[in-house]
Write a structure and sequence with these properties.
- By secondary structure, the chain is an alpha+beta fold.
- It has helices spanning about 1-30, 95-100; strands at about 35-40, 45-55, 55-65, 65-70, 80-85, 90, 115-125, 130-140, 140-160, 165-175, 195-205.
- The protein folds into two domains: about 1-30; about 35-205, Lipocalin (Beta Barrel).
- It is about 20% helix and about 50% strand.
- It has an eight-stranded antiparallel barrel with strand order 1-4-5-7-8-9-10-11.
- A hairpin with a 4-residue loop joins strand 7 (about 115-125) and strand 8.
- The longest helix has 30 residues, at about 1-30.
- The chain is globular, with a radius of gyration of 25 Å.
Length: about 200
């Protein structure tokens, strides 16, 4: 009888512990901020780049196919995580011959590296609507940390979608040679620095 009583008491104790753990988990979940997912509206977003040719003129281009997702639990986006993936073959510099050259091995080598990506590691608010974004850029098989500047252009409700939308302009500069892009082309012919600019309209899912 004593053994049975001990087993029953231990069972009740274990059940109480489990119940307390479950209550604590529910309480933590109740107070935790739920992250929202925002996705780029392709109709109202673009991803552009620019390089300097022969040190005198700027040549611009864009990537037509890309996806950007932003996850954030805070209204001011100070905890945001941004992920971007772009299709290398969608490059467009308004010159077919140049685009085809850029896709070859001596530049982007699209057959081997069909996409490039970026994932943020921090999204630090440094002014009212200005952020410093640090993250990893993977391009041409090389991954390096880069720093970007993001400007929050506002959050409103889209009257057609009946959903919140947020606008961001993100810009930054990389050295193409850090990623092994066009290493045989001197900076006097083609600038080492490549400037990226993304104007993105995010729709809250």
């Amino acid at each position: 009888m004593h053994l049975c009583s001990t087993i029953v008491n231990n069972s009740h104790t274990d059940m109480r512990k489990i119940a307390l753990i479950l209550l604590a988990a529910v309480a933590m979940f109740s107070f935790a901020e739920v992250a929202s997912v925002w996705k780029s509206d392709k109709t109202h977003s673009n991803l552009k780049f620019a390089v300097t040719h022969l040190m005198v003129s700027e040549v611009e281009g864009s990537f037509k196919k890309f996806d950007i997702k932003m996850t954030s639990a805070k209204d001011d986006f100070s905890d945001a995580v941004v992920e971007l993936t772009a299709d290398i073959k969608s490059i467009d510099t308004e010159n077919t011959q140049r685009d085809e050259h850029l896709l070859k091995e001596d530049f982007l080598d699209a057959a081997k590296y069909p996409t490039f990506s970026f994932k943020s590691k921090s999204f630090k608010k440094i002014a009212d609507k200005k952020y410093e974004v640090k993250g990893d850029l993977t391009l041409h098989g090389v991954t390096k940390e880069i720093t970007l500047e993001a400007i929050h252009r506002g959050t409103v409700e889209n009257p057609m979608l009946k959903k919140p939308v947020a606008g961001f302009k993100v810009s930054g500069t990389i050295n193409r040679k850090d990623f092994g892009v066009g290493p045989t082309y001197a900076s006097a012919m083609l600038s080492d620095e490549v400037t990226f600019t993304a104007n993105t309209e995010f729709v809250k899912e």
